[in-house]
Amino acid sequence: MKKVLTTVIILIVVIGGIGWILSNNKKKNEEKTAIVAQGSGAVTVRTSSVTKQPLDLDFSVNGNFLPSQDLTFSAENSGRITRILVDVGSKVNKGQIIAYLDSELLNVTSSNAQATYDNAKKDLERFESSFKTGGVTQQQLDAQRLNVERALATLKESNRKLSDANIKAPINGIVNKKLIEVGTYVSPGTQLFEIVDVSKLKLSTTVTESQVAALKIGDNVKITTNVYPDKSFNGKVSFIAPKADNSLNFPIEIELSNNQNNDIRAGMYGTAVFEFAKQAPVVIIPRTAFVGSVSSNKVFIANGDHAKERQVVAGRILGDQVEILSGLQEGEIVIVSGQINLVDGTQISAIK
Predict the structure, then answer these.
(1) What is the CATH architecture of 43-56+280-351?
(2) 8 A C-beta contact, residue 48 and residue 289
(3) What is the fold, at CATH topology level, of the domain defined by 104-163?
(4) Tell me, what's the pLDDT at 226?
(5) Distance (Å, rounded) from C-alpha 81 to C-alpha 99?
(6) CB 174, CB 196: distance < 8 Å
């Protein structure tokens, strides 16, 4: 009984202590609120003057050079490689023979197909002659014509396979990898060579939303490299992504021609330098002046010691600055911090 009574007393004391602490905190908060209420009640904000500045749209971005064509091609026939005419680093032209496949069986097949086709044509001539005298029916004549067509198709196929025994380069370029050796047995789909064309390249890079707005397909671009600081190349914008990537940047590609020595190699780093004509001065305000986001088109200006809401029309976003097309005049004071506490007409205390 004593233990129960002691426990109850302790609980009463604890509860009473908590109540006293809460009451005391409430009293202190009310005192602080009263002190604030006795003040001016003005909201402290930071401001900035609306200025007119000439735009500098020039910028540069880094990227990687990609080959205009990079092709790993495969065998179309089965057989053993009997001869290879190129090595890694060799320059090749489209249609150039670079290796030979054993063609003995293919030659036999082609010869048989040719003989079958020749016999079918002779038989057709006899059928046509007999048809004129009533020796064969129209159905028999048509069947023989079909035999000739089939024999011709077989001949073309065998000749194509025989021709493919001479392995030819499918594009102009440089042999980057040789994936076979003399004696290798290949079948359709076996990879043979990797050929890379660096006579033309693409500089792949990304730009921000404000930068992409200034670009269009066909724009001329100056390209430099750290490897050859004394050389520059001319390129043209060939691709602008319609959609941003996961980092909210926009992939673009710039095409350029390599020099005679093909000094630029795929995989090197390059810098694209975008230069634009001098722009006329425009009204500029800090991006932080907007309530919420730039798309809200809502800012507050300082009208004496009061805040006044203003609707504006935003233009280009230029880093941490935003172009204003209408709604503000040069020299007005815009609030750039503290807007969350403002409504139209709120008294303010401005600091710069």
Answers:
(1) Beta Barrel (2.40)
(2) yes
(3) Helix Hairpins (1.10.287)
(4) 87
(5) 7
(6) yes
59-67+198-274 classified as CATH 3.40.50.80: no
φ, ψ for residue 205, nearest 5 deg: -155, -175
Among candidates 326, 296, 304, 336, which has minimal Cα distance to 49? 336
Beta bridge partners of 72: 194
Q: What is the pLDDT of residue 206?
A: 95
The pLDDT averaged over each successive group of 10 residues in the chain (352 residues) is 55 60 58 42 89 84 93 89 93 92 76 85 85 83 87 84 82 94 92 94 92 90 90 93 93 93 90 85 91 90 92 86 91 90 89 74
323-328, long-range: CB within 8 Å, 24+ apart, which pairs?
323/55, 323/282, 323/283, 323/284, 324/50, 324/282, 324/283, 324/284, 324/285, 325/283, 327/297, 327/299, 328/50, 328/283, 328/285, 328/299, 328/301
309-314 long-range contacts, Cβ below 8 Å, gap at least 24?
309/342, 309/343, 309/344, 314/290
Residues 6+ away with beta carbon under 8 Å from 194: 70, 71, 72, 175, 176, 177, 179
Partnered with residue 3 across adjacent β-strands are none
Question: Is 0.70 topped by the overall pTM?
Answer: no
Encoded tokens for 105 = 């069986």
Written as one letter, the residue type at 61 is: V
State the DSSP string of 15-29: HHHHHHHHHHHHHHH
Q: Which residues contact 107 (CB under 8 A, 6 or more apart)?
A: 162
Domain segments of the chain: what residues? Answer: 43-56+280-351, 59-67+198-274, 104-163
What is the pLDDT at residue 72?
94
Distances (CA, A) of 34 to 37, 39, 107: 5, 9, 106
The token duo for 126 is 């006899």
What one-character DSSP code corresponds to residue 124?
A: H
